[in-house]
Write a structure and sequence with these properties.
By secondary structure, this protein is mainly α. Helix content is about 75%, strand content about 0%.
Length: about 130
């Protein structure tokens, strides 16, 4: 019996290849899911968030085969300094006090005049 122009042996070989490729894809997908679960666990630990039972199960199933890519590890470790650079609310309030309010007012008024003149050019009613 031939399937799509294949002999029985060719068809069986094809089916075997399909099954092997599916198993490889499934294994790769499971590895990626485990990496994501590990990453989420690291972030939860860093920010002291509650643990996820689903992630714990995923990590147990993967065993020691979970390797987080270096780029992701750098992202996890690199987030803390960025947050510290933002500063506190008091620092932000100090920056507001140092702003030149007159210059800000002049700029706002100039923008309003510009918008009004453009509107007058386009609208004959105004």
């Amino acid at each position: 019996m031939a399937h799509d122009g294949m002999s029985r042996e060719e068809y069986e070989e094809y089916q075997k290849q399909v099954v092997e490729e599916k198993m490889e894809r499934d294994a790769e997908f499971a590895g990626r899911k485990a990496e994501r679960a590990c990453l989420r666990t690291c972030l939860r630990d860093k920010y002291r968030l509650p643990k996820s039972e689903q992630d714990e199960i995923m990590l147990q199933q993967a065993g020691d085969d979970v390797d987080i890519p270096e780029e992701l590890i750098k992202m996890i470790d690199g987030e803390a300094p960025q947050e510290e650079e933002k500063g506190s609310i008091m620092d932000q309030m100090q920056n507001l006090q140092n702003m030149d309010m007159e210059q800000l007012k002049e700029k706002a008024q100039a923008t309003i005049v510009e918008i009004k003149s453009k509107a007058e050019e386009k609208c004959t009613i105004m």
